[in-house]
Amino acid sequence: MRRTVKNTDELLQIVDEYDAVSFDIFDTLIMRKTLLPEDVFAIAEQKLAGQGCFCDFVLNRKRAILENTTANPNINEIYDHFAKISDLSVSECQVLMQLELELERKVLVSRRTVVEALKRIHNMGKPVFLITDMYLPADIIEEILAGLGVTDYDDLLVSCDYRTLKTENLFSVYRKKHPYNRYLHIGDNLNSDIECAEKNGIDTVYLPSALNAFREHDKKGLIPQANTVYKRNMLGFMLADLYNDPFALPKEREWHIQDVAMITMAPIVFCMVAKLKRIVEERHYGKILFAARDGYLLKKLYDEIKGENDPEAVYFYTSRRAVTNISCENEHQILWLANLPYSYEKEKILKNVFGLSDTEYNEKEEFNTNILNYKAEIMRISNERKENYRKYLHNIGVGGDTYLFVDLVSSGTCQMYIDRLIDGELAGYYLCKLKTDEQAKESLNYSSLYKPVPIGDETYSFYKLYYLFESVLTSGEPSLDCFDREGKPIFLAETRSAEEINQVESLQSSLAGYFREMWYLCDGMREPAELFADRLIEFWRENIRECKINVNLQDDWMGTQIIVNDI
User: Fold this and answer.
1) Most CB atoms closer than 10 Å: which of 164, 178, 187, 309?
2) pLDDT of residue 557
Protein backbone atom coordinates (compact mmCIF):
# COMPACT_ATOMS: atom_id res chain seq x y z
CA MET A 1 0.00 0.00 0.00
CA ARG A 2 1.25 3.44 -0.89
CA ARG A 3 0.76 6.05 1.81
CA THR A 4 0.57 9.80 1.21
CA VAL A 5 1.86 12.34 3.70
CA LYS A 6 1.98 16.13 3.51
CA ASN A 7 4.43 16.85 6.30
CA THR A 8 6.66 15.30 8.94
CA ASP A 9 3.88 15.13 11.52
CA GLU A 10 1.70 13.04 9.21
CA LEU A 11 4.63 10.73 8.54
CA LEU A 12 5.20 10.23 12.26
CA GLN A 13 1.52 9.46 12.75
CA ILE A 14 1.42 6.62 10.23
CA VAL A 15 4.75 5.21 11.47
CA ASP A 16 2.91 4.04 14.60
CA GLU A 17 1.16 1.44 12.45
CA TYR A 18 4.42 -0.31 11.48
CA ASP A 19 6.96 -2.53 13.19
CA ALA A 20 9.97 -1.43 11.10
CA VAL A 21 10.75 1.60 8.97
CA SER A 22 13.34 1.83 6.20
CA PHE A 23 14.71 4.78 4.25
CA ASP A 24 16.41 5.07 0.91
CA ILE A 25 19.62 7.11 1.22
CA PHE A 26 20.59 9.02 -1.91
CA ASP A 27 18.08 11.71 -2.94
CA THR A 28 15.93 10.81 0.07
CA LEU A 29 18.01 11.31 3.22
CA ILE A 30 20.94 12.99 1.53
CA MET A 31 21.48 14.53 -1.89
CA ARG A 32 24.20 15.85 -4.14
CA LYS A 33 24.53 19.53 -4.95
CA THR A 34 25.49 18.54 -8.47
CA LEU A 35 22.42 18.32 -10.68
CA LEU A 36 23.17 14.74 -11.82
CA PRO A 37 25.12 11.98 -10.01
CA GLU A 38 27.41 11.44 -13.01
CA ASP A 39 28.47 15.10 -12.91
CA VAL A 40 30.91 14.00 -10.22
CA PHE A 41 32.72 11.98 -12.92
CA ALA A 42 32.88 14.97 -15.28
CA ILE A 43 34.31 17.15 -12.51
CA ALA A 44 36.90 14.48 -11.73
CA GLU A 45 37.90 14.25 -15.39
CA GLN A 46 38.44 18.00 -15.61
CA LYS A 47 40.52 18.04 -12.44
CA LEU A 48 42.63 15.16 -13.72
CA ALA A 49 43.14 16.94 -17.04
CA GLY A 50 44.36 19.98 -15.13
CA GLN A 51 46.96 17.73 -13.52
CA GLY A 52 48.06 16.37 -16.89
CA CYS A 53 46.21 13.06 -16.56
CA PHE A 54 44.18 12.36 -19.71
CA CYS A 55 42.59 8.97 -19.17
CA ASP A 56 39.06 9.40 -20.60
CA PHE A 57 37.85 9.20 -17.03
CA VAL A 58 34.12 9.56 -17.66
CA LEU A 59 34.08 6.92 -20.40
CA ASN A 60 36.30 4.45 -18.59
CA ARG A 61 34.53 4.96 -15.27
CA LYS A 62 31.24 3.95 -16.90
CA ARG A 63 32.88 1.05 -18.72
CA ALA A 64 34.37 -0.15 -15.45
CA ILE A 65 30.82 -0.78 -14.22
CA LEU A 66 29.11 -1.92 -17.40
CA GLU A 67 31.87 -4.35 -18.40
CA ASN A 68 32.54 -5.60 -14.87
CA THR A 69 32.07 -9.35 -14.49
CA THR A 70 31.26 -9.01 -10.78
CA ALA A 71 27.57 -8.62 -10.02
CA ASN A 72 26.87 -5.23 -8.39
CA PRO A 73 30.56 -4.42 -7.95
CA ASN A 74 31.82 -2.14 -5.19
CA ILE A 75 34.08 0.82 -5.84
CA ASN A 76 37.28 -1.16 -5.27
CA GLU A 77 36.23 -3.74 -7.85
CA ILE A 78 35.22 -0.96 -10.24
CA TYR A 79 38.67 0.60 -10.07
CA ASP A 80 40.37 -2.78 -10.40
CA HIS A 81 38.59 -3.11 -13.72
CA PHE A 82 39.39 0.52 -14.56
CA ALA A 83 43.07 -0.42 -14.39
CA LYS A 84 42.49 -3.26 -16.84
CA ILE A 85 40.80 -1.13 -19.50
CA SER A 86 43.10 1.91 -19.18
CA ASP A 87 46.81 2.50 -19.35
CA LEU A 88 46.94 3.26 -15.63
CA SER A 89 48.42 1.10 -12.90
CA VAL A 90 46.42 -0.21 -9.93
CA SER A 91 48.10 2.34 -7.66
CA GLU A 92 47.27 5.17 -10.06
CA CYS A 93 43.66 4.02 -10.15
CA GLN A 94 43.60 4.10 -6.36
CA VAL A 95 44.46 7.79 -6.58
CA LEU A 96 41.53 8.28 -8.97
CA MET A 97 39.24 6.46 -6.57
CA GLN A 98 40.26 8.73 -3.70
CA LEU A 99 39.55 11.78 -5.89
CA GLU A 100 36.06 10.46 -6.65
CA LEU A 101 35.39 9.84 -2.96
CA GLU A 102 36.64 13.29 -2.07
CA LEU A 103 34.30 14.86 -4.62
CA GLU A 104 31.36 12.83 -3.34
CA ARG A 105 31.97 14.08 0.18
CA LYS A 106 32.23 17.65 -1.10
CA VAL A 107 28.89 17.66 -2.91
CA LEU A 108 26.69 15.67 -0.52
CA VAL A 109 24.32 17.44 1.88
CA SER A 110 21.52 16.18 4.09
CA ARG A 111 17.83 16.72 3.37
CA ARG A 112 17.25 18.27 6.73
CA THR A 113 13.57 17.57 7.35
CA VAL A 114 13.91 13.92 6.29
CA VAL A 115 16.92 13.40 8.55
CA GLU A 116 14.99 14.99 11.41
CA ALA A 117 12.06 12.62 10.72
CA LEU A 118 14.44 9.65 10.80
CA LYS A 119 15.78 10.77 14.20
CA ARG A 120 12.31 11.21 15.65
CA ILE A 121 11.18 7.82 14.36
CA HIS A 122 14.23 6.16 15.88
CA ASN A 123 13.63 7.97 19.17
CA MET A 124 10.10 6.53 19.17
CA GLY A 125 11.71 3.13 19.57
CA LYS A 126 11.04 1.97 16.02
CA PRO A 127 13.72 -0.11 14.30
CA VAL A 128 15.09 2.00 11.44
CA PHE A 129 17.01 0.60 8.47
CA LEU A 130 18.70 2.17 5.46
CA ILE A 131 18.53 0.46 2.07
CA THR A 132 20.38 1.72 -1.01
CA ASP A 133 21.58 0.74 -4.46
CA MET A 134 25.16 1.93 -4.43
CA TYR A 135 28.71 0.92 -5.34
CA LEU A 136 30.07 2.39 -2.12
CA PRO A 137 30.27 -0.30 0.58
CA ALA A 138 28.60 0.17 3.94
CA ASP A 139 31.71 1.31 5.81
CA ILE A 140 32.24 4.24 3.41
CA ILE A 141 28.56 5.18 3.40
CA GLU A 142 28.44 5.05 7.19
CA GLU A 143 31.33 7.49 7.35
CA ILE A 144 29.64 9.83 4.86
CA LEU A 145 26.34 9.67 6.76
CA ALA A 146 28.00 10.34 10.10
CA GLY A 147 29.64 13.43 8.62
CA LEU A 148 26.17 14.68 7.66
CA GLY A 149 24.67 13.93 11.07
CA VAL A 150 22.83 10.75 10.05
CA THR A 151 23.46 8.13 12.75
CA ASP A 152 20.02 7.10 14.00
CA TYR A 153 19.55 3.73 12.30
CA ASP A 154 19.98 0.07 13.20
CA ASP A 155 21.37 -1.45 10.01
CA LEU A 156 22.51 -0.45 6.53
CA LEU A 157 21.94 -2.67 3.51
CA VAL A 158 23.91 -1.76 0.37
CA SER A 159 23.46 -3.48 -2.99
CA CYS A 160 27.20 -3.92 -3.60
CA ASP A 161 27.59 -5.68 -0.21
CA TYR A 162 24.74 -8.14 -0.91
CA ARG A 163 25.33 -8.39 -4.69
CA THR A 164 21.73 -7.57 -5.48
CA LEU A 165 19.70 -4.44 -6.27
CA LYS A 166 16.34 -3.29 -4.95
CA THR A 167 14.89 -4.17 -8.33
CA GLU A 168 16.28 -7.69 -7.77
CA ASN A 169 16.27 -9.20 -4.29
CA LEU A 170 17.56 -6.55 -1.85
CA PHE A 171 14.15 -6.02 -0.23
CA SER A 172 13.79 -9.79 0.15
CA VAL A 173 17.23 -9.92 1.81
CA TYR A 174 16.12 -7.12 4.12
CA ARG A 175 12.96 -8.95 5.18
CA LYS A 176 14.80 -12.19 5.86
CA LYS A 177 17.55 -10.45 7.83
CA HIS A 178 15.09 -8.37 9.86
CA PRO A 179 11.77 -10.22 10.18
CA TYR A 180 8.81 -8.11 11.26
CA ASN A 181 5.09 -8.10 10.55
CA ARG A 182 4.52 -4.68 9.03
CA TYR A 183 7.13 -2.70 7.12
CA LEU A 184 7.19 0.87 5.79
CA HIS A 185 9.75 2.07 3.25
CA ILE A 186 10.38 5.74 2.38
CA GLY A 187 12.15 6.68 -0.85
CA ASP A 188 12.32 8.90 -3.92
CA ASN A 189 12.42 6.42 -6.82
CA LEU A 190 9.00 5.31 -8.01
CA ASN A 191 10.41 2.09 -9.44
CA SER A 192 13.19 0.85 -7.17
CA ASP A 193 11.88 2.32 -3.92
CA ILE A 194 8.13 2.29 -4.30
CA GLU A 195 7.04 -0.41 -6.76
CA CYS A 196 9.76 -2.89 -5.80
CA ALA A 197 9.12 -2.46 -2.09
CA GLU A 198 5.40 -2.96 -2.62
CA LYS A 199 6.05 -6.16 -4.59
CA ASN A 200 7.83 -7.44 -1.49
CA GLY A 201 4.87 -6.73 0.78
CA ILE A 202 6.23 -3.43 2.12
CA ASP A 203 4.07 -0.30 2.38
CA THR A 204 5.65 2.86 1.02
CA VAL A 205 5.84 6.65 1.22
CA TYR A 206 7.06 8.53 -1.83
CA LEU A 207 9.18 11.62 -1.20
CA PRO A 208 10.24 13.29 -4.46
CA SER A 209 13.88 14.08 -5.01
CA ALA A 210 14.80 17.74 -5.35
CA LEU A 211 15.27 17.29 -9.09
CA ASN A 212 11.88 15.61 -9.59
CA ALA A 213 10.14 18.25 -7.48
CA PHE A 214 11.76 20.95 -9.58
CA ARG A 215 10.75 19.31 -12.87
CA GLU A 216 7.12 20.12 -12.13
CA HIS A 217 7.92 23.84 -11.94
CA ASP A 218 10.58 24.12 -14.64
CA LYS A 219 8.37 25.98 -17.09
CA LYS A 220 11.32 27.91 -18.56
CA GLY A 221 13.25 24.73 -19.38
CA LEU A 222 16.22 25.35 -17.11
CA ILE A 223 17.14 21.67 -16.98
CA PRO A 224 17.79 21.32 -20.74
CA GLN A 225 19.51 24.73 -20.71
CA ALA A 226 21.94 23.39 -18.10
CA ASN A 227 24.01 21.83 -20.88
CA THR A 228 27.42 22.08 -19.21
CA VAL A 229 28.71 20.86 -15.87
CA TYR A 230 29.30 24.52 -14.98
CA LYS A 231 25.61 25.35 -15.38
CA ARG A 232 24.41 22.08 -13.87
CA ASN A 233 26.40 22.81 -10.73
CA MET A 234 24.73 26.21 -10.45
CA LEU A 235 21.30 24.69 -10.84
CA GLY A 236 22.17 21.81 -8.52
CA PHE A 237 23.29 24.19 -5.78
CA MET A 238 20.03 26.10 -6.13
CA LEU A 239 17.89 22.96 -5.95
CA ALA A 240 19.80 21.72 -2.92
CA ASP A 241 18.43 24.80 -1.17
CA LEU A 242 15.04 25.46 -2.79
CA TYR A 243 13.89 21.81 -2.87
CA ASN A 244 15.83 20.36 0.04
CA ASP A 245 12.57 19.87 1.94
CA PRO A 246 10.29 17.38 0.13
CA PHE A 247 7.36 18.48 2.28
CA ALA A 248 7.41 22.18 1.38
CA LEU A 249 7.55 24.08 -1.90
CA PRO A 250 9.91 27.07 -1.99
CA LYS A 251 7.05 29.58 -2.00
CA GLU A 252 5.82 28.13 1.29
CA ARG A 253 9.07 28.96 3.07
CA GLU A 254 9.72 31.95 5.26
CA TRP A 255 12.44 33.83 3.40
CA HIS A 256 15.24 35.82 4.98
CA ILE A 257 17.89 38.01 3.39
CA GLN A 258 20.49 35.24 3.89
CA ASP A 259 18.39 32.87 1.76
CA VAL A 260 17.77 35.47 -0.91
CA ALA A 261 21.45 36.37 -1.17
CA MET A 262 22.54 32.76 -1.60
CA ILE A 263 19.93 31.96 -4.24
CA THR A 264 20.11 35.15 -6.28
CA MET A 265 23.49 36.76 -5.68
CA ALA A 266 25.94 33.89 -5.25
CA PRO A 267 25.83 32.57 -8.86
CA ILE A 268 26.20 36.09 -10.31
CA VAL A 269 29.14 36.91 -8.04
CA PHE A 270 30.77 33.62 -9.00
CA CYS A 271 30.35 34.34 -12.73
CA MET A 272 31.76 37.84 -12.35
CA VAL A 273 34.92 36.68 -10.57
CA ALA A 274 35.34 33.68 -12.89
CA LYS A 275 35.24 35.95 -15.95
CA LEU A 276 37.64 38.35 -14.24
CA LYS A 277 40.06 35.46 -13.84
CA ARG A 278 39.82 34.74 -17.58
CA ILE A 279 40.35 38.40 -18.44
CA VAL A 280 43.52 38.80 -16.40
CA GLU A 281 44.93 35.57 -17.81
CA GLU A 282 44.39 36.78 -21.37
CA ARG A 283 45.57 40.40 -21.08
CA HIS A 284 48.29 42.33 -19.29
CA TYR A 285 47.41 44.64 -16.40
CA GLY A 286 49.78 46.23 -13.92
CA LYS A 287 47.20 46.04 -11.14
CA ILE A 288 43.51 45.29 -10.65
CA LEU A 289 41.72 48.21 -9.00
CA PHE A 290 38.61 47.02 -7.13
CA ALA A 291 36.48 50.12 -6.68
CA ALA A 292 35.36 51.02 -3.18
CA ARG A 293 32.97 50.12 -1.84
CA ASP A 294 31.27 47.57 -4.10
CA GLY A 295 34.53 45.82 -4.99
CA TYR A 296 35.33 44.81 -1.42
CA LEU A 297 34.16 41.18 -1.50
CA LEU A 298 35.12 40.78 -5.16
CA LYS A 299 38.73 41.62 -4.28
CA LYS A 300 38.77 39.12 -1.42
CA LEU A 301 37.51 36.37 -3.73
CA TYR A 302 39.98 37.29 -6.49
CA ASP A 303 42.83 37.13 -3.97
CA GLU A 304 41.82 33.57 -3.09
CA ILE A 305 42.18 32.34 -6.69
CA LYS A 306 44.94 34.69 -7.85
CA GLY A 307 47.60 32.83 -9.79
CA GLU A 308 51.32 33.37 -9.38
CA ASN A 309 51.47 35.44 -12.57
CA ASP A 310 48.18 37.28 -12.10
CA PRO A 311 48.27 41.01 -11.32
CA GLU A 312 48.09 42.33 -7.79
CA ALA A 313 44.67 43.38 -6.49
CA VAL A 314 44.19 46.78 -4.87
CA TYR A 315 41.11 47.83 -2.93
CA PHE A 316 40.87 51.21 -4.63
CA TYR A 317 39.37 54.11 -2.72
CA THR A 318 37.00 56.07 -4.89
CA SER A 319 33.44 57.37 -5.00
CA ARG A 320 31.37 59.46 -7.36
CA ARG A 321 31.54 62.26 -4.82
CA ALA A 322 35.34 62.11 -4.64
CA VAL A 323 35.98 62.02 -8.40
CA THR A 324 33.50 64.70 -9.43
CA ASN A 325 34.82 67.13 -6.85
CA ILE A 326 38.33 67.04 -8.34
CA SER A 327 37.15 68.29 -11.73
CA CYS A 328 35.66 71.70 -10.98
CA GLU A 329 37.92 73.58 -13.38
CA ASN A 330 35.40 75.98 -14.97
CA GLU A 331 31.91 77.38 -14.52
CA HIS A 332 30.29 74.72 -16.69
CA GLN A 333 31.67 71.87 -14.57
CA ILE A 334 30.80 73.63 -11.33
CA LEU A 335 27.19 74.27 -12.35
CA TRP A 336 26.77 70.73 -13.71
CA LEU A 337 27.80 69.35 -10.37
CA ALA A 338 25.70 71.85 -8.41
CA ASN A 339 22.51 71.08 -10.36
CA LEU A 340 22.41 67.30 -9.98
CA PRO A 341 19.21 66.02 -8.32
CA TYR A 342 20.39 66.06 -4.72
CA SER A 343 18.08 65.58 -1.78
CA TYR A 344 19.80 68.46 0.02
CA GLU A 345 18.17 71.85 0.35
CA LYS A 346 19.70 74.29 -2.13
CA GLU A 347 21.21 76.33 0.69
CA LYS A 348 23.31 73.32 1.70
CA ILE A 349 24.78 72.50 -1.72
CA LEU A 350 27.89 74.61 -1.20
CA LYS A 351 28.69 72.81 2.04
CA ASN A 352 27.48 69.25 1.35
CA VAL A 353 28.62 69.00 -2.28
CA PHE A 354 31.63 71.30 -2.58
CA GLY A 355 32.92 71.13 0.98
CA LEU A 356 32.76 74.86 1.64
CA SER A 357 32.22 76.37 5.07
CA ASP A 358 31.21 79.84 6.20
CA THR A 359 29.07 80.54 3.16
CA GLU A 360 25.97 82.69 2.83
CA TYR A 361 23.07 81.92 0.50
CA ASN A 362 21.27 84.96 -0.89
CA GLU A 363 17.63 84.15 -1.58
CA LYS A 364 17.34 87.25 -3.78
CA GLU A 365 19.82 85.82 -6.28
CA GLU A 366 19.43 82.82 -8.59
CA PHE A 367 20.75 79.49 -7.44
CA ASN A 368 23.54 79.41 -10.05
CA THR A 369 24.63 82.90 -9.09
CA ASN A 370 24.91 81.83 -5.47
CA ILE A 371 27.10 78.92 -6.51
CA LEU A 372 29.34 80.96 -8.79
CA ASN A 373 29.85 83.58 -6.08
CA TYR A 374 32.20 80.99 -4.62
CA LYS A 375 33.75 79.86 -7.90
CA ALA A 376 37.32 80.69 -6.92
CA GLU A 377 37.05 78.84 -3.61
CA ILE A 378 35.38 75.83 -5.27
CA MET A 379 38.15 75.64 -7.87
CA ARG A 380 40.84 75.99 -5.20
CA ILE A 381 39.41 73.14 -3.12
CA SER A 382 38.89 71.03 -6.24
CA ASN A 383 42.50 71.46 -7.31
CA GLU A 384 43.73 70.68 -3.80
CA ARG A 385 41.66 67.50 -3.73
CA LYS A 386 42.99 66.52 -7.14
CA GLU A 387 46.57 66.79 -5.92
CA ASN A 388 45.69 64.79 -2.81
CA TYR A 389 44.12 62.09 -5.01
CA ARG A 390 47.33 61.96 -7.06
CA LYS A 391 49.27 61.53 -3.84
CA TYR A 392 47.05 58.54 -3.03
CA LEU A 393 47.72 57.04 -6.48
CA HIS A 394 51.45 57.48 -5.92
CA ASN A 395 51.19 55.83 -2.50
CA ILE A 396 49.58 52.69 -3.94
CA GLY A 397 51.92 52.50 -6.90
CA VAL A 398 49.44 53.36 -9.66
CA GLY A 399 50.93 55.14 -12.64
CA GLY A 400 52.67 54.45 -15.93
CA ASP A 401 50.98 51.13 -16.67
CA THR A 402 47.67 49.63 -17.79
CA TYR A 403 45.13 48.97 -15.03
CA LEU A 404 41.79 47.19 -14.78
CA PHE A 405 39.08 49.05 -12.85
CA VAL A 406 36.43 46.71 -11.42
CA ASP A 407 32.97 47.95 -10.44
CA LEU A 408 29.40 46.68 -10.30
CA VAL A 409 26.55 48.47 -12.08
CA SER A 410 27.73 51.91 -13.19
CA SER A 411 27.51 54.43 -15.99
CA GLY A 412 31.29 54.81 -15.78
CA THR A 413 31.54 58.04 -13.79
CA CYS A 414 34.42 56.93 -11.58
CA GLN A 415 36.34 55.27 -14.41
CA MET A 416 36.01 58.36 -16.61
CA TYR A 417 37.40 60.76 -14.02
CA ILE A 418 40.14 58.44 -12.77
CA ASP A 419 41.20 57.74 -16.35
CA ARG A 420 41.88 61.47 -16.70
CA LEU A 421 43.81 61.50 -13.45
CA ILE A 422 46.21 58.58 -13.68
CA ASP A 423 49.45 58.43 -15.60
CA GLY A 424 48.65 55.30 -17.58
CA GLU A 425 45.77 53.49 -19.22
CA LEU A 426 42.58 52.40 -17.50
CA ALA A 427 40.20 49.67 -18.68
CA GLY A 428 36.95 48.90 -16.93
CA TYR A 429 35.25 45.63 -16.00
CA TYR A 430 31.65 45.81 -14.82
CA LEU A 431 28.87 43.53 -13.77
CA CYS A 432 26.76 45.68 -16.07
CA LYS A 433 27.68 48.97 -17.72
CA LEU A 434 24.81 51.43 -17.94
CA LYS A 435 24.24 53.27 -21.21
CA THR A 436 24.09 57.05 -21.11
CA ASP A 437 23.90 59.97 -23.53
CA GLU A 438 27.38 61.11 -22.48
CA GLN A 439 29.86 60.40 -25.25
CA ALA A 440 32.82 60.46 -22.87
CA LYS A 441 31.36 57.58 -20.87
CA GLU A 442 30.35 55.63 -23.95
CA SER A 443 33.90 55.95 -25.32
CA LEU A 444 35.48 54.32 -22.26
CA ASN A 445 37.55 51.17 -22.67
CA TYR A 446 35.61 48.51 -20.79
CA SER A 447 34.12 45.04 -20.79
CA SER A 448 30.95 43.98 -18.99
CA LEU A 449 29.73 40.62 -17.73
CA TYR A 450 26.28 41.52 -19.07
CA LYS A 451 25.77 43.63 -22.16
CA PRO A 452 25.24 47.36 -21.46
CA VAL A 453 21.67 48.47 -20.82
CA PRO A 454 19.99 51.85 -20.24
CA ILE A 455 19.21 52.85 -16.66
CA GLY A 456 16.02 51.11 -15.56
CA ASP A 457 16.16 48.52 -18.33
CA GLU A 458 14.66 45.14 -17.33
CA THR A 459 16.51 42.89 -19.77
CA TYR A 460 18.21 41.14 -16.86
CA SER A 461 16.50 39.83 -13.73
CA PHE A 462 19.52 40.62 -11.55
CA TYR A 463 19.08 44.33 -12.29
CA LYS A 464 15.85 44.30 -10.28
CA LEU A 465 17.97 43.27 -7.29
CA TYR A 466 20.83 45.65 -7.91
CA TYR A 467 20.44 47.54 -4.64
CA LEU A 468 20.69 44.26 -2.78
CA PHE A 469 23.99 43.53 -4.56
CA GLU A 470 25.29 46.99 -3.72
CA SER A 471 24.35 46.75 -0.04
CA VAL A 472 25.81 43.26 0.47
CA LEU A 473 29.10 43.31 -1.47
CA THR A 474 30.20 46.56 0.12
CA SER A 475 32.98 47.33 2.60
CA GLY A 476 32.43 47.83 6.30
CA GLU A 477 34.01 51.29 5.95
CA PRO A 478 31.97 54.42 5.22
CA SER A 479 31.96 56.01 1.78
CA LEU A 480 34.99 58.02 0.63
CA ASP A 481 34.77 61.80 0.84
CA CYS A 482 38.27 62.84 -0.27
CA PHE A 483 41.98 62.47 0.59
CA ASP A 484 44.18 64.48 2.93
CA ARG A 485 47.52 66.01 1.94
CA GLU A 486 49.30 62.73 2.66
CA GLY A 487 47.00 60.84 0.30
CA LYS A 488 45.11 59.11 3.10
CA PRO A 489 41.35 58.59 2.74
CA ILE A 490 38.85 60.77 4.58
CA PHE A 491 35.47 59.13 5.00
CA LEU A 492 31.96 60.45 5.31
CA ALA A 493 29.90 59.64 8.39
CA GLU A 494 28.70 56.05 8.57
CA THR A 495 24.98 55.72 7.78
CA ARG A 496 24.64 52.05 8.73
CA SER A 497 24.15 50.64 12.20
CA ALA A 498 26.58 48.16 13.76
CA GLU A 499 23.88 45.49 13.37
CA GLU A 500 23.58 46.19 9.63
CA ILE A 501 27.35 46.01 9.16
CA ASN A 502 27.49 42.71 11.06
CA GLN A 503 24.75 41.34 8.83
CA VAL A 504 26.72 42.33 5.73
CA GLU A 505 29.79 40.53 7.07
CA SER A 506 27.72 37.40 7.72
CA LEU A 507 26.25 37.49 4.21
CA GLN A 508 29.68 37.95 2.69
CA SER A 509 30.96 34.95 4.62
CA SER A 510 28.15 32.82 3.15
CA LEU A 511 28.77 34.12 -0.38
CA ALA A 512 32.48 33.38 0.00
CA GLY A 513 31.64 29.84 1.09
CA TYR A 514 29.51 29.33 -2.03
CA PHE A 515 32.27 30.74 -4.19
CA ARG A 516 34.91 28.41 -2.74
CA GLU A 517 32.74 25.34 -3.22
CA MET A 518 31.86 26.26 -6.79
CA TRP A 519 35.42 27.18 -7.65
CA TYR A 520 36.67 23.86 -6.34
CA LEU A 521 34.15 22.02 -8.50
CA CYS A 522 34.36 24.26 -11.58
CA ASP A 523 38.00 25.31 -11.80
CA GLY A 524 39.08 24.60 -15.36
CA MET A 525 35.46 24.62 -16.59
CA ARG A 526 35.01 28.37 -16.65
CA GLU A 527 32.94 28.72 -19.80
CA PRO A 528 30.40 31.61 -19.79
CA ALA A 529 27.31 30.94 -17.68
CA GLU A 530 26.16 34.42 -16.63
CA LEU A 531 22.97 34.35 -18.72
CA PHE A 532 22.04 31.05 -17.12
CA ALA A 533 22.75 32.52 -13.67
CA ASP A 534 20.38 35.38 -14.48
CA ARG A 535 17.69 32.88 -15.48
CA LEU A 536 18.01 31.30 -12.05
CA ILE A 537 17.07 34.68 -10.56
CA GLU A 538 14.17 34.92 -13.01
CA PHE A 539 12.92 31.51 -11.85
CA TRP A 540 13.23 32.54 -8.22
CA ARG A 541 11.30 35.77 -8.74
CA GLU A 542 8.52 34.08 -10.69
CA ASN A 543 8.06 31.08 -8.41
CA ILE A 544 8.62 32.42 -4.93
CA ARG A 545 5.96 34.45 -3.18
CA GLU A 546 6.50 38.15 -2.81
CA CYS A 547 9.45 38.59 -0.49
CA LYS A 548 9.45 41.56 1.88
CA ILE A 549 12.97 42.37 3.03
CA ASN A 550 14.09 45.84 4.01
CA VAL A 551 17.34 46.97 2.44
CA ASN A 552 18.46 50.44 3.49
CA LEU A 553 21.09 52.07 1.31
CA GLN A 554 22.38 55.61 1.67
CA ASP A 555 23.38 57.30 -1.58
CA ASP A 556 26.31 59.33 -0.34
CA TRP A 557 26.54 61.31 -3.59
CA MET A 558 22.91 62.37 -3.92
CA GLY A 559 22.26 62.32 -0.19
CA THR A 560 19.17 60.15 -0.64
CA GLN A 561 18.07 57.16 1.41
CA ILE A 562 17.05 54.23 -0.78
CA ILE A 563 14.71 51.73 0.87
CA VAL A 564 13.96 48.52 -0.97
CA ASN A 565 11.41 46.21 0.62
CA ASP A 566 10.04 44.18 -2.28
CA ILE A 567 12.62 42.02 -4.02
Assistant:
1) 187
2) 52
